[in-house]
Structure formats: C-alpha cells, structure tokens
Design a protein that fits this description.
Length: 71
C-alpha cells in the first residue's frame, strides 16, 4: 500500500477505490486529516496520486508563506 496526503476532492475520489481507507497510524481515535491509504491493487494510480499530493502540498506551502508575509 501507499499513503498520500490529498486535497478534499482528490481524497473523496481516492477513498472510493476498493480497499482504500483513511490513514490512521496507531489506530488513534481520529485518522490523519486528508491522508489516504491506497492498496497495491491500485498501484497503476500511484503516480497520478503522487502528483496530486505534491500539488496539494505546494499549494498548502504557498498559503502558509502568504500568511506569514502578511502577519
């Protein structure tokens, strides 16, 4: 399996995949926000999901940088 941090829309789509689930390390009461575990049987989608994850992280960092500049 592979784990990805995705935006809300991509996360919803990813969790529709058979066997996909939210990422919950250590079986905590609440899974990690925006993270999904995608099973190996969907490995053909991993590259696409990795790109979406990268784009999401870049966007998050730009937002954080923008807030820091105006704070």
């Amino acid at each position: 399996a592979m784990v990805f941090k995705l935006n809300k829309d991509s996360l919803i789509d990813a969790l529709d995949l058979q066997g996909a689930d939210t990422f919950n390390p250590g079986d905590k009461a609440k899974p990690m926000k925006n993270w999904a575990v995608i099973p190996y049987k969907h490995s053909q989608l991993w590259k696409e999901l990795a790109l979406k994850a990268y784009q999401h992280i870049v966007k998050e960092e730009k937002i954080k940088d923008g807030k820091r500049k105006h704070a």
